[in-house]
Amino acid sequence: MSEKVVYRSGYGYEPVPRVEDFFEGWPSPPTQATFQDALRGSYAVEFAIVGERVVGFVNALSDGVVAAFIPWLEVVPDYRGRGVGAKLMRRMLDRLGHLYSVDLLCDPPLVKYYQRFGLQAIPGMGVRTPRNLGGTTN
Ligand SMILES: CC(C)(COP(=O)(O)OP(=O)(O)OC[C@H]1O[C@@H](n2cnc3c(N)ncnc32)[C@H](O)[C@@H]1OP(=O)(O)O)[C@@H](O)C(=O)NCCC(=O)NCCS
């Protein structure tokens, strides 16, 4: 817990984040392969790393010129509440700063959290198909 958290952009180096460290509370988390494919296919990824372990990450999908969507931001429980999530968000928003729109979806309790970074609550729509994550659907 006292080990230093370092931040890295992009992908293509070790360590690879372990799916079992993330997706807390998901009834059907992605498989490791699906997780890695999603990160490789992302426009931008930011990692928080302690030693060999990825303790947090955020990724963004984008056309690169107008719009981006942030599907995942997650920090492992033992590193929460230390500003890791905020650092990851700020690094990501810096990388996406040239775009017109940056969107994400969150549960109502997290609205205030994201307002810290200048995001505003706006109505949204979506559909979820858990079987497409590759894992077992509970
Ligand atoms: C949300 C999350 C990424 C924040 O990461 P973190 O490193 O703990 O965040 P920070 O240290 O930057 O900020 C902590 C603040 O976020 C708030 N926060 C964290 N999770 C929250 C939640 N679910 N609801 C409301 N507030 C929350 C904390 O209360 C704390 O507030 P404070 O600064 O006033 O004390 C982390 O809690 C997490 O991984 N949660 C599970 C996955 C998740 O919900 N991801 C977001 C999907 S939209």
Q: Could you explain the architecture of this structure?
A:
The chain has 138 residues and is of the alpha+beta class. The protein has one domain (6-133): 3-Layer(aba) Sandwich (Aminopeptidase), CATH 3.40.630. Helices cover 19% and strands 24% of the residues. The protein has three helices and five strands, in the order E-H-E-E-E-H-E-H. The protein has helices spanning 32-40, 84-95, 111-115; strands at residues 6-9, 44-50, 53-62, 67-75, 101-103. A five-stranded mixed β-sheet has the order 1-2-3-4-5, covered by helices on one side. Strand 3 and strand 4 form a beta hairpin. The longest helix is centred in the middle third of the chain and has 12 residues, at 84-95. The radius of gyration is 15 Å and the shape is globular. The termini are far apart. Bound molecules: coenzyme A.
Task: Work out the helix count.
Answer: 3
Q: Enter the CATH topology name.
A: Aminopeptidase
Radius of gyration: 15 Å
Bound molecules: coenzyme A
Q: Structural class given helices, strands, pairing?
A: alpha+beta
Overall number of strands: 5
CATH classification class: Alpha Beta
Reading side by side through the largest sheet, how are the strands ordered?
1-2-3-4-5
Tell me the count of domains.
1
Give the DSSP E fraction (strand runs of 2 or more residues): 15-25%
The CATH superfamily bears the name: Gcn5-related N-acetyltransferase (GNAT)
Principal-axis shape: globular
Mean pLDDT: 93
The CATH architecture: 3-Layer(aba) Sandwich
Helix content: 10-25%
What is the succession of H and E elements? EHEEEHEH
